[in-house]
Design a protein that fits this description.
It contains eight helices and eleven strands. By secondary structure, the chain is α/β, with parallel strands linked by helices. The chain has two domains: about 120 residues, Response regulator (Rossmann fold); about 100 residues, Orthogonal Bundle (Arc Repressor Mutant, subunit A), CATH 1.10.10. The strands form three sheets. The protein has a five-stranded parallel beta sheet, with helices on both faces. Strands 6-7-8-9 form a four-stranded antiparallel beta sheet, with helices on one face. Helix 6 packs across helix 8. The longest helix has 15 residues. The radius of gyration is 19 Å and the shape is elongated.
Length: about 230
């Protein structure tokens, strides 16, 4: 999750509450930095302050909506503006929800969970499915056509990320950040090795290949068209 807020005290409070709820939090203090961070790694949701240096929250939201890859990114606006006309403007620029300051952390967390359930249901599910492929997160088990699939820890995380974003193409760099973490420095061919292992495990029973390789772009959980 990305928090875009230029008030240090509020930024600290938001980070504390979000991390307490189990979210991984990135921070930006102005609109231009926020767009650069989204370009590098698309988060699951953006908490976006209305009033920001260099670029307003409304303009950031508009640019997100014009972005081909991040166009469906959930955005919640944070603002001191409580008038109905301001709320309408915030929603019209593409925000999915609108929270007026001051707000209670409990209310904000409830709004975040509601938006994620509505727009990114895979992120709040205990079971992820794609065709005949099933991942049970609670039991840490994967099966395909009712046959068990045994995966190593890295392949499990890689498959989970792909299942949470079916049919979306990820570059090797994006997969390194999402699966291994942004502070881990590995060669991009590491991704190829683990994708190959995951593909072999998923196709062991003779089913169709679920992972599509996109030349010069990356990989997607999307069966190759025959």
């Amino acid at each position: 999750m990305l928090v875009v807020e230029d008030e240090p005290a509020l930024l600290t409070l938001l980070r504390y509450n979000l991390e307490h709820e189990g979210f991984e939090v990135g921070e930006a203090v102005d609109g231009e930095d926020a767009l650069l961070m989204i370009e590098e790694r698309i988060p699951d949701l953006v908490l976006l302050d209305w009033m920001l240096p260099t670029l307003s929250g409304m303009e950031v939201c508009r640019q997100i909506r014009r972005n081909t890859e991040a166009g469906n990114l959930p955005v919640i606006m944070l603002t001191a503006r409580g008038e109905e006309s301001d709320r309408v403007r915030g929603l019209d620029c593409g925000a999915d929800d609108y929270v007026v300051k001051p707000f209670s952390p409990n209310e904000l967390m409830a709004r975040i969970r509601a938006v994620l359930r509505r727009l990114r249901p895979a992120l709040s599910a205990n079971v992820l499915e794609f065709g005949d492929l099933v991942m049970d997160l609670a039991a840490h088990r994967v099966s395909r056509a009712d046959g068990a699939i045994h995966l190593g820890p890295t392949e499990f995380r890689l498959l989970k990320h792909l299942l949470e974003h079916p049919r979306r193409v990820f570059s090797r760099e994006q997969l390194l950040d999402a699966v291994w973490g942004p502070d881990v420095f590995l060669e991009t061919r590491t991704v190829d090795v683990h994708v190959r292992r995951l593909r072999q495990a998923l196709n062991k029973g003779g089913g169709a290949d679920l992972i599509r390789t996109v030349r010069a772009a990356g990989y997607a959980l999307d069966p190759e068209k025959s």
